Amino acid sequence: MRLFIVFSLLLLSCSIVYGQTMLPKLLPSPQVIRSNNSAGKLNLIAIRGFVLGKGCVRAKSGVGQVNTRLNELSQKSLPYIRSGKPGQSGTVWLGLHPDSAAEKLVVGLPEPKEQGYRLVVGEDSIVILGKDLPGLYYGLMTLRQLVEADGSIPRVSISDWPDLKLRGTYTCEGDPEKKIEYFASLKLNFIVFETGEFYYMDKPASRKRWQKIFDTCRRNFIEPIPELQSFGHGNVNIDIEPRCVEGVYMKNVPATVQNGEIIVHRSKEPVSDTSIVNAGFEQKNGIPDGWLVDTKNGEIAVTDIEKHSGNSSLCISHQSLGTLRAWQMLPCLEQSNYKYTCYIKTKDVAKGSGISSGAYTEIYGVTENGELSPGLLTISKIQNGTNDWSQLSLVFNTQQYKKLCIFVRLQDTSGTAWFDDLELKCLEKWNQLSPNITITPTSPLIMTNKAGDIKYKEGKDYQIIPGDPLVIGDNKTGKKFYPMEGKPATLKIISTGQITDGDELLLSYNYAPAGSVSCCPSEPLYRNMMQKAIYKVVKTLKCKYLHIGHDEPQALNRDSRCKERGLSNVDLYVDEIMRMRQYAIDADPKCKTMMWDDSLNPYSNAAGFKLESAAQFVPKDIIMNVWAYSYPGDSEKIQKSIKFWTDLGFDITGSPWYDVYNAHYWDQALKEHKNSRHILGSFYTAWGDDPPHMWFGLTTSAQYAWSNTIPLDEFLATKDK
Prior knowledge:
This protein has 721 residues and is an alpha/beta fold.
C-alpha cells in the first residue's frame, strides 16, 4: 500500500497546461482553478504559520497533513499564530463562511456548495475560506497537494465543491490506519470497514484499536462505518458458531438397525441423462454440437490441431483482451456430490488485470426459471501463460439445484486455450450422518419408527457418537468448513431403550453441504450473536451508520428451522433484515442501517431465491448499496437499478470495482439522477489488497465523484504515467 500511496503522491505533483497557463494537476481536480494576476509561485519560507479563524479548531487535522507534506520535503512544520486577519503577510488564514474580511479576498470566485471551499494563494499569504468545516478541511487537502518539491506553491485561486454528497470506499484487509490519510487526501468522506474483530468488542485490545481508528477517521472528516458481514457471507458467524449455518433439511431418511448400529440407507441411484454432450468435442468441426458459444471478437471452434485424446478438442482464442465462453446445461440430482474433470492446454494466455483473467472452467446451478445461481458451485484454478495438457479436478455439491451449467472460458484475457475430455460423475450420495449435521435445540435430529408414530429420545433410546468437528484446521493452516472427507458421526441404540436390531427407522435432520457460508435467519444462536455484536459495535464506536452485509446469499429457507415457520422466501428474508435493523435501532435510534442491494434487486441476484418482490416490504430508511462491476456489460443494469431503488424511495450509493471505465460510468450515472434526493454518492469497493489492482479504479472513482473538470482520456493518460 505504501508504494501505491507514493505513486499517487507523485502523480499529484504533476502539472497540466490549460491554454497558455501552467496550472497544477490536482486529484480530484477542482471545479474552478485560475492563475492569479501576480502568477509565479509563493515560497513557503515567507510563511510564518497558520491562523485559525473562529470555529476552525476541528480543521487542525488538515493542518497536520500539510505539515506532514512539509516534513516529507525536509522542511519544518508551520506553527499556529495566535491572531491575524485574512491576507495578513506571512500567514495561512483559515476561516468559515460567512466572513466579510475574507470574502473581499476571494471576490470573483463562485461561491461553493456544501463541503466546498475557496483558496487563494496571494503575493505573500494564503487564504482558505470553507463553506463549512469539511470544506475547510478539503481546502487544506488541496493546499497539501499544491506544495511542490522545492517548497513553493503556485499562485492560484480555487473555488471547489463535490458533485456527490457521499464519496467513500470499502476496506477489509491490511492495516487500515495506514490508509486513512490517503483516503482523506482524495476527499473521501466515509469508509466501510469489514473485520471479524467487530464481533469481539468485549475484548479490550480490539475495542481500543477500533476506537482509535474511528477517532482518526473522524478527525479527518471521514465517517467510519463498521460492516458486520452476516447472513450471505456468514464466514465470521460460522467461524464463531458453525451450527448457525443454513443447512439442508433431510426429512424421513430411511435407516435400519444392524448389530446395535443405526445405518442410513445411501442412494446409489445413477443419474439419468447426466452425461456431458460431446464431452470430447469429437462431433463436428466449427461450433461444437450440444454447446452454446460466444461468437464475438474471437474464435471458438472444434479443432484437430490440438487434442488430449481422440481426434479433436475445443479451441478458444482471442487476439486482444476479451471474454469468450462455451457452455452447456444438464440435469443433476439435487443435494448430491459430483466430481467434474476437464483437460486444458494454454498458449500465451495473458495475465490481464482482473482477478479472474485467464482460462478456466466453472459450474453454476440453474434455478427453476432458468437463471444461473447467485454464486458458483465450483471453479477451477485459473490458467495463464503457456502450459501443456493438465487435468482440472473438482468435487462439489449440487445444493438445491436440479440442473447445472458448465462453462469453459477465456475471461478478460488474450491467447489460446484448448479444452478436452470433460467428465461429470455423480458420486455416492453423501452419508448424511457426517460431521456436517448441525444439531441445536431448534435443529434436532429426530428419530421415529417407520410408521412415524413413535418418537425416540437421545440418551434413552439411542446415542450419537460424534465424528470430526464441523470445522477443521486453524487460522495458521487454514480452516475448512463442513469438509466432505471428515469422519462421520455414528448412531447406536441403547440396550435398555425401545429400539432393537432389525427395526426400520426414519431420521430427519439438517446438514451443511461443504462450502456452506450463509447463516440460518431462524437460528437463535445466530440472532443472539448478531444482537450482541451490533449492540456492542454501535455503542462502543458511536456509529452513525451500520452495514449489515447480506450480499450474495448462498441458501435460504431450506432447513427445518426456516421451513417450520411456514414463511415464504420474501417474508423470511424481510423479517431477517428488519430484525438486524431493529438491533441497530435498539442500540441507537439515530443509527442508520446499510446493506448490499443485490439479494433484493431484480436486476441482480433477487431471482435466485424468488425475492423479486421483497424490496417493497423493506423499511425505506435502509440505505441500499448498489453494486455492478462490468463496463459496458452492466451499464443497463446500473441504470435500471438506480431507477428501481429511487422509485421505491430508498437512498442509494453506487459501487464500482477496479475497472476504471466502470468507475467513471457509475459516477456519471449517479449524477444523471442528482436531482433525486435519494442519490447519496459513490462507494468504491476493493475486496482485499492483493492483488494490488483491486484498488486501480479508486482514483477514477474519487475524481468523478468530485467533479467532471477533466476528460476521462486525459485523466487516464496521467494516471497511467
